[in-house]
Design brief:
Layout (H helix, E strand, L loop, with lengths): L1 H13 L7 H13 L2 H14 L4 H15 L1 H6 L4 H18 L4 H9 L4 H18 L3 H17 L6 E4 L6 H10 L8 H7 L4 E7 L9 E6 L3 E6 L8 H16 L5 E6 L4 H19 L5 H10 L6 H11 L8 H9 L5 H4 L1 H21 L1 E2 L2 E2 L2 H8 L3 E6 L6 H7 L3 E7 L3 H11 L6 H4 L3
Antiparallel strand pairs: 1-2, 2-3, 3-4, 5-9, 6-7, 8-9
Helix pairs in contact: 1-2, 1-3, 3-9, 4-6, 7-8, 7-9, 8-9, 13-14, 13-16, 15-16, 15-18
Length: 443
C-alpha cells in the first residue's frame, strides 16, 4: 500500500493543470490514511526527499544570473538597457520557480480539493510526530513549508468566530471533548457544565472544514481562560487572534469585566528541572574525585546552586537518606523521577518539595531563555501577546500528564487591557517578561 500511495503522490504532483486531478487526490488521501504510523513516516520522508528542489538546476540558474549582471557580460552584449532588465526579470522568475519545492504543488492542490485542508492539518500532525522520532533537515524543511502554507490558508480573516453552546451539533461537541488538552473534559456531562451559566466557549471554524474547531477557548467568568488547538496547527498563532476577539466579545456583553486571566499548563518544567538536577549531580560527583586542574576549573564554572542550604537540609531529613555519598540534588532527582509520583501522594514529601518546586518553577518561567525568549512555549505565547505572569498554583492539576510535565503546578497569565501593548513591545524588544510581585517573590 505504501508504494501505491507514493505513486499516487507522484501522479498528483506531476499532473498538468488541464488534467482532472481530484480523483487522484482522493485516492492519495484515502490511501495515506490507511497507512500505519511507520509507513506514514516513510511516505513523508519520500515526499521530502523526492519532491523537494533541484539544487543542481538552482546552481546553474544562479551562475547564469550572476553572468547577466557581470560587467564583462554587459560590455560584450549588444542588448540595450531595457533588454538586460527583461533578461534579469525572466531569470529571477525562473529562480523563484526553481526554489519552490515540488511538494508545494501537492499542498496547493489538496487545499483546493474537498476535505484537503483538513487532511493537510492532520498530515502536519503526523509530520510533527515524525520529526520527534527523526529530527532531520528534510522533514524540518517540509514542516516549515507546510506551516507557512497553513498560516496563509487559515488566516483569521477567513475564519468564523463561533460561540459554542450545548445546542450545537453533537459531532462538534464531541470534538471539543476530544481536543481539549489543557483541562481535559471527562464526558459530555462535564462539557454541559462548562457550557452552562457563567461559562462561555468560543472557537474558530473554517468554511472548508465545517463542524471542526481549529482552536477554541473556554471562558469561566471571574475565574479564567484556557485554550486548545489541534496538533497539526502547532506554531500557527491562531490563539493570539482568538484571545483578542474573545476579550472584545466579553467586554461588549459585560463592560464591567476589566481583567482576563488564563489557567495554563507548564509543559516543559519537569523536563528542564530533571535535566538540571542530573547534570548538577554529575558535576558534584566529579568534583569530589581527583582530576586535573582544568577539569576541576571546568566543573566549578558549570556548577550552580539549584538548592538553598535550608532546602538541602530539609531534603535529607524528609527522605531520611543516610548514604552520605549521595548529595541533596541527587536525592531530589531520584524522588521526582519516581514513575508512580510517590512524593505527590505523601503529605510530608509534598509539603517538603512544594517551596522548592514553586521557586524553581518561577525561575524556569521568568529567567530561562532560548534566543532571548522564554524557554517555556506557553509562557512565550502569552507574554508575546502582552500578558503578565501573575501566580503559580500548587497541585492545580493532579493528572498523570501534569505531574510528569509540571509537578501539577499551573500558572495564571493576566491580561490587563491597559498594559497589553506595552508588555508585548518590551518582550519583543528586550525579552523582558512582566511578572507580578507575587511571582518575583520566588526569585
Amino acid at each position: 500500500m505504501l508504494e501505491t500511495v507514493q505513486n499516487l503522490m507522484h501522479g498528483a504532483i506531476h499532473m498538468k493543470k488541464t488534467d482532472t486531478v481530484d480523483p487522484t487526490l482522493t485516492e492519495f488521501s484515502q490511501g495515506y490514511q490507511t497507512l500505519g504510523s511507520e509507513n506514514r513516516r516513510k511516505a513523508l520522508i519520500a515526499l521530502a526527499t523526492q519532491f523537494g528542489v533541484n539544487r543542481v538546476h538552482i546552481r546553474e540558474l544562479i551562475q547564469h544570473y550572476l553572468g547577466l549582471q557581470s560587467d564583462d557580460h554587459a560590455q560584450q552584449s549588444d542588448l540595450d538597457e531595457e533588454g538586460c532588465a527583461s533578461a534579469l526579470y525572466r531569470m529571477e522568475k525562473n529562480l523563484r520557480h526553481a526554489l519552490k519545492p515540488l511538494y508545494i504543488t501537492l499542498f496547493e492542490r489538496l487545499n483546493a480539493h474537498p476535505g484537503g485542508l483538513k487532511f493537510l492539518v492532520d498530515l502536519r500532525a503526523d509530520l510533527n510526530g515524525a520529526i520527534e522520532e527523526e529530527n532531520i533537515p528534510l522533514l524540518r524543511s517540509l514542516d516549515s513549508d507546510l506551516k507557512e502554507k497553513l498560516a496563509t490558508w487559515l488566516s483569521p480573516a477567513v475564519l468564523e468566530l463561533h460561540h459554542i453552546t450545548w445546542d450545537d451539533p453533537a459531532s462538534l461537541l464531541e470534538k471539543i471533548v476530544a481536543y481539549e488538552a489543557v483541562h481535559p473534559i471527562s464526558n459530555l456531562h462535564d462539557l454541559k457544565r462548562r457550557l452552562g451559566a457563567g461559562r462561555r466557549c468560543f472557537g474558530y471554524l473554517h468554511p472548508a472544514i465545517p463542524g471542526e474547531p481549529l482552536i477554541f477557548i473556554e471562558v469561566a467568568l471571574m475565574r479564567g481562560l484556557s485554550q486548545s488547538i489541534q496538533h497539526g496547527l502547532a506554531g500557527i498563532n491562531l490563539g493570539k487572534f482568538l484571545i483578542k476577539r474573545v476579550i472584545e466579545l466579553v467586554r461588549q456583553e459585560m463592560p464591567h469585566v476589566k481583567m482576563f486571566a488564563t489557567l495554563s499548563p507548564i509543559p516543559g518544567f519537569m523536563q528542564w528541572l530533571l535535566s538540571k538536577l542530573a547534570s548538577q549531580s554529575k558535576l558534584a560527583q566529579s568534583s569530589s574525585k581527583s582530576g586535573t586542574d582544568y577539569e576541576e576549573a571546568l566543573a566549578s564554572a558549570l556548577r550552580e546552586n539549584l538548592l538553598l542550604p535550608e532546602e538541602e537540609k530539609e531534603i535529607i531529613e524528609a527522605t531520611m537518606e543516610n548514604d552520605k555519598s549521595i548529595g541533596p540534588m541527587e536525592v531530589l532527582l531520584k524522588l521526582l523521577s519516581s514513575a508512580r509520583h510517590e512524593w505527590a501522594k505523601s503529605e510530608t514529601l509534598s509539603k517538603m518539595v512544594q517551596p522548592i518546586l514553586m521557586r524553581l518553577c518561577a525561575r524556569y518561567l521568568l529567567k530561562e531563555k532560548k534566543r532571548g525568549k522564554a524557554l517555556d512555549p506557553v509562557t512565550n505565547f502569552h507574554v508575546q501577546n502582552g500578558a503578565t505572569a501573575e501566580r503559580l498554583n500548587w497541585m492545580a492539576d493532579f493528572s498523570e500528564k501534569s505531574l510528569c510535565q509540571s509537578a501539577g503546578i499551573m500558572v495564571n497569565y493576566l491580561y490587563r487591557l491597559d498594559e497589553i501593548e506595552e508588555n508585548a513591545q518590551k518582550y519583543f524588544n528586550t525579552g523582558y517578561i512582566k511578572a507580578s510581585s507575587y511571582m518575583e517573590g520566588y526569585l
